[in-house]
Amino acid sequence: MNSFAHKIRADLLAQKSRTLLAIISIAIGIFVVGTLLGMIDLQLSKMDASHKLSQPSHISLILKTDADFAVAEQIKTLAGVANVDKLTQFTVRFKTANNPQWQTGTAIIRPDYRVQHYDLMTLLSGQFPHDNAVAVERLSAKAAGLKQSDAVVFETATGEQTFTIDGVIRHPFVKPPPFGGQLHFFIAPESAAIFGIQPTTFRQLLVQVSQPYNEEKARLIAGDIRAKLSALGISVNATLLQNPEQHWGRPFFSGINLILTVMAWASLALSSVLILNTIAALITQQTDQIGIMKSIGARRLTIARLYLTEVFIVALLALVLAVPLSLAAAYFSSQWLLDLFNIEMDGFEYSLCTVYLMLAGGLLAPLCASVYPIWRGASMSVRQAIASYGLGADFGSSRFDNWLERSVFSALPTLYAVTLGNLFRRKARLVWTQIVLIIAGVLFIVIIGLITTVNLTLDNELARSRYAVRLGFSSDQPSALVEALIRTVPQTTGLEFWNRLPAELSRNELLLKQSGSLGVQLIALPVESVMYKPLIVSGRWFEQSDNEQKVLVLNAATAELNGIQVGDNINVNLLGRFNSAWQVIGLYRWFVGSGYNVEPVYAPLSTVQTMTQRSQFSSFALLSANIKTEAEEKIVADALKQVFQNNHIKLDFYTTIAKLEQRQNAKNQFRPITSMLLGLASLIASVGAIGLSGTLAIGVLQRTREIGVLRAIGASSSAIFKLFMLEGLFHGLMAWLISIPIAYYLAEPLSRKLGEIMLGIQLDFSFSWLAVWLWLAIVTVLVLLASYLPAHHATRIVVRDSLNY
Amino acid sequence: MSIIQLNNVHKAYMNGQISQPVLHDISLDIDAGEFVAIVGASGNGKSTLLNLLAGIDKPSQGQVDVCGSALHKLTEEQLSVWRGANIGIVFQFFQLLPSLSVLQNILLPMDFVAKQPKRERLERARYLLDLVGLSDQAQQLPSQVSGGQQQRAAIARALANDPQLIVADEPTGNLDEATADAVFELFLTLNQQGKTLVMVTHNESLAESASRRIVLHSGRIVDDQLSDYVVE
Questions:
Q1: Which of B84, B104, B143 sits opposite A713 (nearest CB)?
Q2: pLDDT of A714-763, one tens digit each?
Q3: Could you give phi then psi for residue B22, rounded to 5 degrees?
Q4: Distances from the Cα of A129 to the Cα of A137, A638, A797, angstroms
C-alpha cells in the first residue's frame, strides 16, 4: 500500500462517525432516487404490459337494454370494425358465510369464458364458472375474504340460490372495493336464465377497430356503431374509448410520477448538499495536513485527487448500501400500487435503467458537490494552511457579525449568545443546512396543505349536493311509483326526479372531444333543483326562465378542449332521434376529473320531457333525509334498496349514491396519493435531520478545542449538552420560521398545479395552518433527535485531549 | 498554608504499547499567595505539571491536592465544576470565544458557575475589565482587539469567579515584549492583591521576577528557589 492509500485509509477510519455520516448522506439520496424512479419504471411498464395482455377493447359500449347476439354480428360488419366481443354485467344481491346480510354486488356473464376476444378476464385459480359454480374476482376475494369452495347465496329470479365459488378471476377494469367498488362475481352462461337474463343477449359490447388504431378513428367508428344501434332501437348509456397501448390508469400516474421524479432528484441534490458540508468540514479539519503536504512538495492536483478519491470510495460504499435497499423498496411499493389496479407482479423485478441512473447519480453528484471545497482547500497556500491556532477568528469579520453581536447577542444571556454565535460562525454551512431543512418544511406544509385542500374541495362539492341518497335505475321507472315507494321510508324529507339520456354533442358536424373517458350523458333536472348545483366557472346555472328552453350547462374542461364559450350553440342528438341546436349558458367544474367516468351535460328537465314525450318516467330519484352519520345513512340506503328490490325495480350500482359513503370512497381514492406524498415528505424531513445532525457533529469536531476551553473555565456537561441542543433547536426554529412565508406563497399555485396534474381538477385552496404547527412539532422532535448524539459526544470530550487537538 | 500539594506524582502517556514517562516522582507544596514560575526546556513536562494542577489531566500515580480538593479522585464532570469555582486558567492563545464580545467572554464563567447573583455578574465583569484596562473595549469582538488586549481579557475571564488560584500556560508566549511586560505587570498586581499564581513560561527574565522559580528537567524538579524579588 503506498502512502496515498495509507492516507486515504487513515482519513476514512480516523473519524468513523463522519465517514458513516457521509455514506448515509449519499445513500439516502440514492435510495430515494432508486426507489421512486424504480417504482415509476416498474409500475408503468407493468401497467402497460398488463393492459396489452388483456387485449383491451378500443370501444366499449354499455347499452341501456339487453341486445341479442345477432346485433353484435351486425356491428361486426360495419366498416372499420375488426371484431367484437360481448358480455352482460348486472347488479345482484348476495350473502356469504362471512357476512350473512344481503349485499349488493356485480355479476358478469360472458358467452364463453374460454373464447374471450377483448378485455380478457383471466382465470387465476380453480375453474371458470360452470353449472352451479361461480368465480369471484381477485380483488373481491381479497376484500371479502372469499376463497374457493366457499358458498355464496344469490337472490335470483326464482328465489335464493346457493352457488359455490370454484375459481378466482382477474378483471382488468375493476374498481377496488376500498375505493367504493362492489364485489364482482362471474356467472356461467348456462346459469343466466336463473338471474332472469336471456342467455343469447348481452349488455356491453366490446369492439376493436381495424389497425392501425388511432383515437379519432375509434371516435368516428363509435359514432357509427351508436347510430347503427340507435337504428336498431337500442340506446347506449355510455361509450368508453381506450388506448390499447397505454393502461387506463396511466394519466393518473403520469401526473404524480412527474412530481415523484422531481422529488427524487431534489433528494439527491439535498444529499449532495450534505456531502458538500461534510467535505468542507473535512478540508477545514485537515487544513494543517494540507499545509504540511504542500510544504513537502504535494501539488494542488495531487491533493485534490487524494480527497476526490476519498469521496469516490464513500460514494461507492453508499451505493453498496443503497442500491439493494432501493431495489427492494421499489419492488414492494410497485407491488402495492399495482395491486390497486388489480395487477400482480410475478416475482422480484427491478428496473435496470434505474440501476444505471443510481450508479451515475450516486457517483457523480457527490463528486460534483465536493469539487469546489476540495479545490479551494487544495489551492490554499502553505502559510495559510499552517497558520491556524487558538479558537479561530471565524466570527466578527463582517458587518453582519458586528450587527448580530451588538444588536442581538449583547441582549442575550451568555449561553444563548454562544449558541447563536456558533450558528452564524460557518455561514455557508448554515445556509446549506437551512436550505435542506427549509425545503423539507416547505414540502411538508405544501403536502399537508394539498391534503387539506383536497378534503375542502370534496366537502365543498358534497355541500353542493343536498341530497342524502341518489337512486339510479337500471331502466327508467314511473315517477309516481318511485315516489310511493320512497315515501314508505320514513326518514325521507324531500324528493326530486331527474332524467338521464345518452347524448351526442357535435359542432360543425364533428363530434366533440370529451374530457370524460366514458363518454357523455345528458342529465335533465328541474331548473329550480334544490338537490344539486355544480360549481359554475363561467356563465350561469339554470333559472326559472330556462324552462322549456334548449339551454345547457357544459363541463368547462370539455368546452376548453373544443374551444366552446358561453353563448355558443352546439348540436345535441338525444337517443339518436332528437337532433337540434342548444345554447351553452354556463360552464361547470367537473370534480371527478378525466378518469373512468361518464361526463354529465345538464339541461332543463321540462325541455327534455317535452321533446321526448316521457314526462312520467325518471332515471334518478334524489331524496333528502334526516341523516347525520354514515351508519344512519346506511340504514336508509339499505331500506330503500330493499323496497325497490321487493318491487323488482333494479337499481344501477354506479349511479346509486349515498352521499357520506361517497365522501369516504372519494377520500379512500386519494389516500394512496396522500400516503405517498406524506412518505416522501417524511423522507425529505429525514434528509433534513441527517443534514442537521451532520452539521452539528462537524461543529463538535471543529469546536473540540473550544469545548475544552469551556470546560476549563467551568462549563459542566449539562451546560455543554444544552449548548449543542440549543444550537440544533435554533437551526430548526430558524428553518421553520423561514419556511412559513415560502410555503404560504408556494402552497396555492403548487396545490392547484398538483390538483390539475394528478387529479385533473381545479382544487378549492385552503392554507393549512395546522400543517405549520405540525411541522413545528415535527421539526422540534427531529432537531432534538438530530442534536442528541453530537451534543452527547461533546460532553464526552476530555479537556486535555481537546486542548491538544 | 499550602494551596497546592503534590505527593510522589508520576505521569506517563501511552504511545501505542509503550509507556512514555513525562513526570517522575514530583512532590511539591505551594502556599497561598505565592507567584510561582515553572521553567524548563520544551518537552520537560511543564505543561503536564500545570495541567495536573488545573485538573485538566490526572496523575498516573500520586496525589494532587489543590484548594482543598483531591483532584486525582474527581471525575471529569466534578473537575469541571471544581475548576469553575476554584481556579482561573490563562492560555497561550487566549482562547476567547470568537462570537462573544469581550464583556460576554468574562460573563461566561460566571454564568456557568452561577456563584454570584445575576445582577452582580455584569457589575463584576465591568469591574474586571476596568482592572485589566479594557473598559473601552467591552463590546468589541475578540477579532477586533489586539493580542495583548485579548490576553488581558483572558486574564479578566480567569478572575471572573474570584478564584484563589490562577494558572497560566505561556501567557506571554504569543505577545511582543512590551505587551508581555504589561501582562506580567498585571500578574504581579494580582499577586500583590493576594492571588496565588502558577505560570509556565520560557521567558527566563519574567520567571526571575516571580516569587518562586521551579525548574523542570526530564520530568523532575531540578531547582526550586525563591527569587530575588521576594528576598528584596
A1: B84
A2: 888 888 888 888 888 888 899 999 999 999 998 888 877 777 766 666 78
A3: -115, -40
A4: 11, 29, 75
Coil/strand/helix, residue B198: strand
Q: 441542543: which residue's cell?
A: A725
Q: Which of B198, B107, B111, B102 is nearest to B152 (CA)?
A: B102
CA distance B154 to chain A (A): 10
Task: Supply φ then ψ for residue A665, to 5 degrees.
Answer: -65, -40
Residue A150 has a CB neighbour count (10 Å cut-off) of: 17
Q: What is the pLDDT of residues A142-169, one digit of tens each?
A: 888 888 888 889 888 788 888 898 899 9
Asked if A391 lies within 8 A of B108 by C-beta distance, the reply is: no
- E strand or H helix that includes residue A151: strand A151-156
Nearest CA in chain B to A803: B56
pLDDT value at A479 more than 60: yes
Task: Report the residue from A390, A421, A705 with minimal CB separation from B99.
Answer: A421
Please write the tens of the pLDDT for every residue from A281-297: 777 777 777 776 776 66
CATH superfamily, region B2-231: P-loop containing nucleotide triphosphate hydrolases (3.40.50.300)
- Give me the amino acid identity at A381: S
- Measured between CA atoms, how close is B11 to chain A, in angstroms? 14
What are the helix (H) ranges across B15-146?
A: 46-53, 76-86, 102-113, 118-131
User: Cβ(A550)–Cβ(A574) under 8 Å?
Assistant: no
Nearest to A706 among B97, B157, B158 (CB): B97
Nearest C-alpha of chain B: how many angstroms from A369?
A: 29
Predicted confidence (pLDDT) per residue in A348-397, tens digit = 888 898 899 889 888 888 888 888 888 888 887 666 665 554 455 555 66
Pairing of strands A133-137, A236-241: unpaired
Contact A717 B104 (CB under 8 A): no
Q: Residue A114 corresponds to which cell in the numbers above? A: 374460454
Q: Is the ipTM of this complex over 0.95?
A: no
> Which chain B residues touch A798 with a CB distance below 8 Å?
76
Q: What angle do CA A581, A470, A598 make, to 5 degrees?
A: 45
